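Chain A, query sequence.
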Amino acid sequence: MENNYPFISMLRKYVSSSVLLVIATVAALIIANSPWGDIYRDFWELPVCLSLGDFNLYSHNGHPMSLGEFINDYLMAIFFLSVGLEIKREVLCGELSSMKKALAPVIGACGGMIVPVIVFFLVCPKDPIMERGMAIPMATDIAFSLGCLSIFSKRCPISLKVFLAALAVADDLGGILVIAIRYTEHLNLWYLLFSAILVIVLCIGNWWGVRTKAFYFNTGFLLWFCMLGSGIHATIAGVVLAFCVPANIPKGTKFWIDRIRHKLDHFPETTVTFADRNKPVVLSDEEIALLKSVESASDHLVSPLQDMEDVLKMSVNYHIIPLFAFANAGVNLAGMSLMSLFSGVGLAVFLGLLVGKFCGVLSFSWLGIKLGIIQMPQNANWKSFASVCMLCGIGFTVSMFMAALSYPPEHADLLNDAKLGILCGTVASALIGCLMLNKFLPKEVQN
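Chain A, predicted structure.
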């Protein structure tokens, strides 16, 4: 279990944020269908400006971004930066760091991306506009799915938790590739050239051992602005930046630990009695310099990748993702009926998540296990494994994001149908998955 500490930490992080995600989603649905619904929808259309003269930093194609576009294009770039850092860490030294470790979740993720697209294609009417949403049911929401699994934390083997988390990470990587390829607009070669130059600058910074976060954040912001104008979706800038952030400690941990010990050996020791505990303590300039040197050495013990991941996790999990959910989950049910879920885009997304994800992950994994390519997660059986595969149909954050990219405002009816399919598919997958887990998991876990 100690070997899985990074994943256990990630599980706790996503489980706690999933509660806020549920609250934001429910609040958005209630407000969007209340007397304040029009105010709610108009609020996200407010323009966002950061201007210097006639130049507005938050503008796209000459028009200021709306608040909704700012969340989807800018704040979600920060979300994808966090996802990219997570993917890089897992590829370098985590559950995706070797063929043996990565194969099971990657094979499952491939099935979980391919089969939902096939289901969507078979169910959706043959309309070019509707078919733009084919990629919507590809994603697994890591926060929601791990949140459901956490209900059975005392009964679920750690291997199943690791499998689901690694599969969701691999899913995110697939989703990122789809966004980069599928939703690229007409390219602006000048902005594309500037983006390429900035990526080279980031790579050189990595090669030279630049460790300051300010360099990567500032260059990454410029990269986001150039990608916004290039036609490639701006959120890809976050992933590209993540892959350029160093993950190593060039001098090793021993060098910095020895330096810290050396500095502390020169720091004067004082003993404070109970009577003197409230007396002020004034350090000399030399003592302050020693402590700052220790602080600097301590910073070098954490790689820039993990440092940035730690800096971003609170903002991403407790502010950006809930805000995204609140802005995008407000489906206007006026004039809609549940019949929208039994035809068109709504049905295609719903079945893609509920049936496609489950069948895709389970069938590809079954084939891999039967061919001897991968192994069943430790202490799991087919029934418990199938229960976790059902949770893979919980698609929310990235699915909502892809829905907004697939159906622009002029196709608001299709966007609402897609959102309804996402919400119902997510809830159905969660309920069925939890019922299956409750029935098939052992009463006591054996790790």
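Strands lie at 47-48, 51-52, 55-56, 59-60, 63-66. Residues 259-299 form one domain.
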